[in-house]
Amino acid sequence: MEHLTRELDDLLKKLKNEAEVRRQLQNLVSIYPFNKYEYIISNLLSSGVLTLDDYQTLRKEYNARNSHLHIFEINAPRTFGETWAQGHVHQLIPSLEKPTKQLDPEYSGQYDFYLDGIRIEVKASRGVDSTSVSSAMDLRLTDKALSSDSKKPFWMNFQQLKPACCDVFLWLAVWRDVIWYWVFASKEVESNQYYSPSQHRGSDGEGQLHLKQDNIEEFNNYKVKPENLENAIRLAKNRQDIIL
Fold first, then answer.
1. Burial class (CB in 10 A: 0-12, 13-18, 19+), 238
2. Using a CB cutoff of 8 Å and minimum separation of 24, what contacts does 42-46 make?
3. How do residues 36-95 score in pLDDT, each as one tens digit?
4. Measuring CA to CA, how many Å separate 157 from each of 39, 63, 194, 207?
5. What are phi and psi of 238, to 5 degrees?
6. The 179-185 sheet, strands edge to edge
7. 99: cis peptide before it, omega within 30°?
8. How does pLDDT run across 208-217, given as a tens digit for each residue?
């Protein structure tokens, strides 16, 4: 959205009635699907500052930059963290199995996937602007969604982590334009300097880890391309077995 806003602002400067349009924008009442962007684009088209071909290009580029914005529309945390995230991972790695007592006699719901004896836990978070006012009820998650190249501060919380209950963690970070994947041996998460072993009172063996703009690059060694996820899981299990 930052990129589109800058583009439209530059185009507004070319309008002969720029000042008038900007005054009208300040008092504009938006009711779905009519909003300030629709109003700006309609003015640009009618004035000839923006041609239909230009609009098509603008739209195509915006769609490319926001190909995952719809994921920010998932409101329920459980639906996002379990239904969407696990379904997405299974599409990428069809060989993953849902654990059962037959596959693992000790299974009791403590992890998400099973792969040739490897216990895998999936966690997901979304990149949102941490400077947004959290108490503003009119701010939707889509309004705070960031692109992967945004310079704005962000905050991702990977929570309810139970390193003792799985061999491998697979984490997803969803941005407007791309999804990042990290694969860890569970002991690598547990020993990480940013891991907090106590998420809340009484949560023995359950912790959390925050990723922010000032520490996310420290996890680059665990970042994996989607086509390499299965192999990365197997390699992480090998590391898990040799970590003391």
1. exposed
2. 43/15, 44/8, 44/11, 44/12, 44/15
3. 999 999 999 999 999 999 999 999 999 988 999 999 999 888 899 999 999 999 999 999
4. 37, 27, 11, 11
5. -65, -40
6. 113-115, 118-126, 168-174, 179-185
7. no
8. 999 999 999 9
